[in-house]
Design goal:
Four copies of one chain form a homotetramer.
Chain A (H helix, E strand, L loop, with lengths): L8 E5 L16 H18 L3 H8 L1 E2 L2 E8 L9 E10 L3 E10 L2 E11 L1 E2 L4 E2 L4 H7 L7
């Protein structure tokens, strides 16, 4: 019996002049920001609330404890950047994402991002609440 | 016979309001940028030219192929951020750095950054020139 | 005889966690960047080339000599930010835009941006070429 | 009888690769951020608390209602950027600054920034408290 992976969430980003450095490509430091924006949009799309609402309305934060990125092709303004976001692990206190960036069908970068759940106002570790857990659990795909 | 490691290069960064998010800590996406600025300053200090001069005056670029960061303590405006930069590997075509960030004596993050040498105008792989190699080689420390 | 102004170009921007400061609103320094991104998108939409293509493919730059912004309501992630862009002056060597930002129907900011045409590689003043002038001229609206 | 203006506060900023666009100069959108960082540092130096401490420890915010900038010379990594900050107006509810940026002795930009005092948690207008007023008042220079 095969389990079919759902098609990953796709988030398009306009890459522009502001993102580029004198090498005529998006500056390295912009790439993690693209990926983080895509994860923020994933929350909005899949959980019904973005990080801002999660933090302010629910008092839950998800600070990052790890991120890693491999860059395989430069990002430029010549194409829209399509970021895919997948949930690759869900622990009792942490969550892990894979974010890939594509331009014109070419993989530009692949990244792993790990964050933990905290009580926002005090930055203390906590488990995600039942309603979010119920939404998150079915979304986990193979790492 | 002991070999003594040189004290790592220290680069101070003022963390301010502009860097902080609603969780009252420096936004995750700012941290890679702090580390990259520290590496740029390391070039200026150790090689006598920063990435801008390296690119424009010498036609050499060092695009990144990998970065990874582990975050252990939040970065805030309460302390200066001290970034240490060390050269941990020097290949024929690539270079690897370790960057650690400290505030008030506490380690906030540790990162690994790998870039490759290219002909800047065409982004084609190349070896570093002899004069830079002579400066870089003695600086390599244990990974 | 009345001349009807065309409906201004609208460019939507997703405001997220990354844009917000500890006051829970988009940081002041982000607003000019939102407006500049909207002008870059206006070029792409109306001229058929964005600043990146204008600079690299046509060797024309448009560095800014002035910008001013009045802020009337905070920008937050609660609504999409709609930026309108209008061409309000076209001189022989300069160009002026009005950019307004709206969220949920409320004006958040209004700005004036003035840039000059230059030969990109040398940053020397020049007039816009005939083909761009022909596209730009009919787009000028009342200041 | 002449009144001597005090020498303006000077805040040095390292301009680097990360700040530059494909035109090989600091991107326009970076300049307001340089100026805002300088004003934040001015608070720390003259008031004994930066915007972060002002907001969190004193529950006072200073959101901006206006900013304008004139650019006269490009900013590049070739020189340190020296930002001068002066207090040019102090109203019962607002405060105005002049920020000038210099590189190698050349004026690169001059800006005017106006912000209002608010109760931070609710963004409601307020007058500055007596202790801050006492520190601010003697610092006002001619506009």
């Amino acid at each position: 019996m095969s389990t079919q992976q759902p098609k990953p969430f796709e988030y398009p980003i306009r890459v522009g002049w502001a993102d580029c450095d004198p090498e005529l490509i998006a500056f390295t430091g912009r790439i993690p920001n693209f990926a983080l924006e895509a994860i923020d949009a994933w929350w909005q799309s899949h959980m019904g609330l973005d990080w801002y609402a999660l933090n302010i309305d629910r008092n839950i934060g998800t600070p990052f404890v790890h991120l890693s990125l491999d860059f395989s092709s430069p990002v430029t303004p010549r194409h829209t950047l399509i970021c895919t976001v997948e949930l690759t692990r869900l622990g009792t206190k942490s969550i892990q994402y894979r974010v890939c960036g594509y331009q014109g069908g070419t993989l530009c970068f692949e990244g792993k991002f790990v964050s933990v759940f905290v009580v926002a106002k005090v930055l203390e570790s906590r488990e995600p609440p039942a309603d979010l857990l119920a939404l998150l659990s079915p979304l986990v795909v193979e790492e």
